[in-house]
Amino acid sequence: MISTTCSTTEMVTQGKLQISNSDNVEDKSSGGLGCFGWILVLISLIIVAGTFPITVFMCVKIVKEYERAVIFRLGRITDRKPKGPGLFFVLPCTDSFVKVDLRTISFDIPPQEILTKDSVTVAVDGVVYFRIHCPISSVANVSNAHTSTRLLAQTTLRNVLGTKNLAELLSDREGISHSMQEALDDATDAWGIKVERVEIKDVKLPQQLQRAMAAEAEASREARAKIIAAEGEMKASRALKEASLVIAESPSALQLRYLQSLNSIAAEKNSTIIFPLPIDMLQGFMQRK
After folding, report:
1. Which homologous superfamily is 104-205 in?
2. Quick check: helix, strand or coil at residue 93?
3. How many Cβ atoms sit within 10 Å of the Cβ of residue 94?
């Protein structure tokens, strides 16, 4: 049994190796231009050499520092690497090229109507910064890299925010931006695109929800104000109790407090000063009568 299993495993391994070798051979053969293709290239070279002074302007191309050129020769990408920056040579009859901009590009995500996890409808927009790091992949793997990235950013924004509730959406914008950047970067890596930054610009709430949140915030502020006022009254009553105990121990302290009150009243303009008379003095006059 052991020998049978080993032989079966060896046969499967050999089959896989044969398949991989045949795939490599097919790739190598498909990467060539073929006999007819080389004939066309030679004819194009002969035409260029025969009309040399004129074809120089058609064969020499220039790309800028931030650009790269992907050259197609008879429909196939040559050398599997882009050309540039600077001068490069193309054949006028068999070659065509596509310029790719490597600078960072930004675009706005249109406002998206999103239903959050706690069933609240909000309108969210954002901005995405990306650049092309592999010109060949951006040309060969996707028809329009910029448009595809824009559409994918809108879909990713909906998918990510659909798993968040309103409180997380308003408080954790940095985390949401980071998760969106990772999702976009993984999806666009096959297109030769690097997503550098994603930012949430604005979150628009419905008018009714804004009024409800404003009323809730006002009620919470009023509640905190009442609690603070009650705590102040409690502390003031304790201080007054301690002051009354001190005044009760010394009768002259009440007279000093009375004089301080008169001084504070007299400091104000157009004030009326009332002099209270002690009841003990009035009782003495009443007894004489």
Report:
1. Band 7 domain (3.30.479.30)
2. coil
3. 18
Per-residue pLDDT, 28: 38
Cβ count within 10 A of residue 140: 14
Residue 191 is classified by DSSP as G
Question: How far is Cα 94 from Cα 62, in angstroms, rounded to an integer?
Answer: 18
For the chain, give every domain's residue range: 41-101, 104-205, 207-241
Question: How large is the C-alpha radius of gyration of the chain?
Answer: 43
Per-residue tokens: 76: 């196939």
Residue 82 amino acid letter: P
211 confidence band (pLDDT: 50, 70, 90): confident
Residues sharing a CB contact under 8 Å with residue 148, sequence separation 6 or more, in sequence order: 142, 188, 191
How many residues in the chain? Answer: 289
3-state secondary structure of 75: coil
What mean pLDDT is reported for the chain? 78
| 89-125 pLDDT tens trace | 888 878 888 999 999 999 999 988 888 888 888 899 8
The number of beta carbons lying within 10 Å of the beta carbon of residue 10 is 10
What is the residue type of 267? Answer: A
pLDDT at 114: 87
- Three-class DSSP category at 102: coil
- β-strand 95-101 against 60-63: which pairing, if any? unpaired
* Residue 153 backbone phi and psi in degrees, to 5: -65, -40
Higher pLDDT, residue 178 or 276: 178
> Residue 79 is which amino acid?
D
Q: Which of 73, 71, 138 is nearest to 101 (CA)?
A: 138
Which pair of tokens denotes residue 235? 């502390």
pLDDT in tens, 154-165: 999 998 888 888
